[in-house]
Amino acid sequence: MTKRLLPIALLPVALLLGGCIACSAAAASTAIAEESATRARLEAGEVVARETRGDPQGGSARMQMLVHAPAQAVWAVIVSCELAFRFVDGLQRCEVLEDSGERALVHQVLDRGWLTPRLDFVFESLRRPWEQIDFRLVEGNLKALEGSWRFEETAAGTLVDHEIRLRPQAPVPAFLVRRDIGRTMPDLLACVRGLAEGNGGGKRQQQDLGRCAGSE
After folding, report:
1. 161 is in which domain, residue-wise?
2. pLDDT at position 21, please?
3. pLDDT of residue 147
4. CA–CA separation, 34 vs 32, rounded Å?
5. Half-sphere exposure of 191 (CA within 13 A, CB side)
6. Which residues have C-beta within 8 Å of that of residue 56, sequence separation ≥ 6?
7. Which residues of the chain have pLDDT under 70?
8. Are both 22 and 80 inside the same structural domain?
9. How many whole angstroms separate alpha carbon 117 and alpha carbon 58?
10. In Å, how far are 46, 65, 135, 190, 211 from 85, measured between CA atoms?
11. Residues 103 and 189 placed together within one structural domain of the fold
């Protein structure tokens, strides 16, 4: 009796395992399709938002773009205070306090109008040429500021991955912080690409430079 019932007792387990395998395969297939669609958007010149989040005290975002130029060209734009006035919206002041090559201290002042408070802060930039730049808040009227720039050479060009997390010191609704990051970050990245001449020139070059926050 037991021997005859054993296969029946194991049947639900087998069905469950089969269902799990099918679910895993479907999830993997969906993930591959999503990544393929993302690559197509990047190759078409889009700035792709991989993640945009808000929390009770601030917001964060991670975005990517493809640049048809070496990482060094993009790097040179990002670390330049002079060019920062072009791609950082509301930048009023940018001063390099220290720079040893692999580490820098930078003072910036941002003012984007009455919707967001004036930001005055110093951040530390840790650099691993030409692969990654990590930055974090040292002092200023912010609760938190941290993020990174990452560069990956691919067959299609340089994949630039930018991530930032921001928490203002003054009470600001989280949705405003999230909306501000989500609105300004794509333009910032497109402008950086334009300044690095990493979009093939012509009409795309003008489109990217047209998204710069500051004038020449």
Report:
1. 46-209
2. 77
3. 97
4. 5
5. 20
6. 174
7. 1-16, 56, 114-115, 171-176, 215-216
8. no
9. 13
10. 23, 20, 18, 14, 13
11. yes
If asked whether residues 28 and 69 sit together in one domain, one would say no
Place of tokens 């047209």: 210
pTM above 0.85, yes or no: no
Residues 6+ apart with CB under 8 A from 23: none
Dump the DSSP string for the chain.
-HHHHHHHHHHHHHHHHHHHHHHHHHHHHHHHHHHHHHHHHHHTTPPEEEEEEEETTEEEEEEEEEESS-HHHHHHHHT-HHHHHHHSTTEEEEEEEEE-SSEEEEEEEE---TTS--EEEEEEEEEETTTEEEEEEEEESEEEEEEEEEEEEETTEEEEEEEEEEEESS---HHHHHHHHHHHHHHHHHHHHHHTT-S-SHHHHHHHHTT-SS--
- Same-domain check for residues 40 and 52: no
pLDDT, residue 215, reads 60
- Quote the pLDDT of residue 20: 73
Question: Do the domain assignments include residue 108?
Answer: yes
171 and 115 in a common domain: yes
Q: 49 has which bridge partners? A: 63
Asked whether residue 26 falls in the same domain as residue 131, the answer is: no
How many other β-carbons are positioned within 10 Å of the β-carbon of residue 161? 17
Has residue 216 been placed in a domain? Answer: no
